[in-house]
Each structure stands twice: as C-alpha cells, then as structure tokens.
Write a structure and sequence with these properties.
A hairpin with a 2-residue loop joins β1 and β2 (150-156). The longest helix has 16 residues, at 27-42. A 3-stranded antiparallel β-sheet has the order 1-2-3, covered by helices on one side. It has 11 helices and 3 strands; from the N terminus they run ααααααααβββααα. Helix content is 55%, strand content 9%.
Length: 223
C-alpha cells in the first residue's frame, strides 16, 4: 500500500503540473478512480472493491463457496474447479455470470469492447502489431513469438530453409497508423515490410540465426 500510495502521489504531482494535458485522455477520471480504489484498499473494503478488481471478486467467490460448504478449503478440488470456472470465457464462466447479473462495475461498454476486438487503437503501436499479424497470416509467415515490445516471425527462404525475423515495438506511442500505413501500402514483400518498420523503430533486434543446410554445417565442422 505504501508503494501504491507513493506512485499515486507522484502521478498527482505530474497531473497538477499539466503533464498529461493533451497526452492522456480522461486523465483526471483515471486518477480519481485510482485514488478511490487505493482508499478502499487501505480500509480493506473488499465488498466495495469486488465489483471493480478482478482478484478481489475471485477471492470473494471462493471464500463464499467455502463458507457455504465448511468441509472445503483452499486445497480442495472443488475450490480449484471454481477457480478455473471463474476465468472461463465460455457461457459457464463465473465472471460472466456476475457481470450479467449487474454485479461487476463496467468501465467500458460491450460495444466499445467489440469494436476494439476488430479495430486496434490507431495512435499506438497496437495498430501496427495487429496489421503485422494480419499480413503474416495472408503471406504464410508463422508467428514464433509475440510480446508487448517485439514480434518474431518464422518463414521460408527461397531454398525452403527457415528464417527468423523480429520487429521491434519498443515505444508504445511510436509506430502508429500514421507512421506505418504508407509502409504497409507500398512494401511488396514481408521481409521488406519488416526492414522498413525496423528502420523507424531504431536499431534492429538480433534475430535467432537461420538453420543452415546440413552440407554447409558439415563443411564448417570439417574445416
């Protein structure tokens, strides 16, 4: 709590200085929600936090189950099953049940969520990440690794040997749609696309070495 409070105080100092103006949409609303949550955490007001914090809601559901059935404890298979059911994305998910019952505090409308499952934000690297994955699917490039700040692809060279290439996405606010749309429109090959994107994002990340044909490997060993 002390650490969270220190972060909150620092953020409020930046807010007072106007640092977030024109940079972070709804900054005042976000900080007010953060402060209210911090105060409730300090008071351990779990019932007020359960509709807002995922881990508190799960804890509330598990403890309620153990209260109703005193023979259960944290190691019981039934409790572990409830834990899994909470996170299920199917119709049997317990989180979905509480959400449908109106218990969960919704900060984003279902329509907005549905929109962004198809349309990534255009003013962050998320747009470029999504377009890269869609382009890779069309061109047969396999996704070897996806992280917040990099994507590594695996595809075949003209001889059929695997080649690994990584796109750096270090800056969350760089490689926006405005930055990269022209590259997607003009790059004729996937490797050209990767090269041009990396030229915007700074020094290239070292990619895993491509596998060498067996005869070349043998020649190196003999020499």
């Amino acid at each position: 709590l002390e650490l969270l409070g220190a972060y909150l105080d620092e953020v409020k100092t930046y807010q007072a200085a106007g640092v977030f103006q024109g940079v972070v949409p709804r900054a005042a609303e976000i900080i007010a929600l953060w402060e209210d949550t911090f105060e409730k955490l300090s008071r351990r007001d779990w019932m007020s936090l359960a509709p807002r914090l995922d881990w508190v809601l799960k804890r509330f559901i598990l403890e309620r189950a153990m209260e109703q059935r005193p023979e259960l404890d944290w190691s019981s298979p039934e409790v572990k099953l409830i834990d899994h059911l909470y996170s299920s994305l199917n119709d049997d998910g317990l989180y979905r049940a509480y959400e449908n019952a109106g218990f969960v505090e919704q900060l984003v409308s279902p329509d907005r969520i549905a929109h962004f499952t198809r349309n990534p934000p255009e003013d962050t690297r998320a747009w470029t990440r999504a377009m890269l994955l869609r382009r890779a699917a069309r061109e047969g490039a396999k996704v070897d690794l996806v992280d917040w700040d990099r994507i590594t692809f695996r595809f075949r060279d003209h001889l059929g040997w695997p080649v690994y290439r990584t796109v750096a996405l270090d800056n969350p606010l760089a490689l926006t749609r405005r930055d990269t749309q022209p590259i997607f429109d003009t790059a004729r090959t996937f490797t050209t696309l990767i090269d041009q994107l990396n030229s915007l994002s700074g020094p290239r990340i070292a990619s895993p070495p491509a596998l060498q044909p067996a005869n070349e490997t043998l020649q190196e060993e003999v020499s």
